[in-house]
Amino acid sequence: MTQEFQTAVQVLGCSREQVWAMNLQALDGGFADEVTRTRLRHEFVDGEARHRPKS
Which residues does 22 contact at the CB level (< 8 Å), separation at least 6? Predict the structure, then answer.
């Protein structure tokens, strides 16, 4: 998916925050049970925190 994310940034002008928000929105609309979606949401949020640029 990395290429798709880069395309969203380069072609559509999305920010890094918008790409993460799109991922979380897709997760919320996915066909998984609530327990799985909750676990994945925590993994996404933790991953985003690890990859967030240092300010």
Answer: 8, 14
Task: List the domain range (segments joined by +) for residue 8.
Answer: 2-51
Q: How many domains does the chain have?
A: 1
Q: Give the tens place of pLDDT for each residue, 2-51.
A: 788 888 889 999 998 898 899 889 988 888 999 999 999 999 889 888 87
CB 18 within 8 Å of CB 10: no
Q: Are 41 and 48 in contact (CB under 8 A)?
A: no
Rounded-to-integer distance, Cα 38 and Cα 47, Å: 14
Q: Write out the two tokens for 9.
A: 């940034």
Asked if residues 32 and 11 have their Cβ atoms less than 8 Å apart, the reply is: no
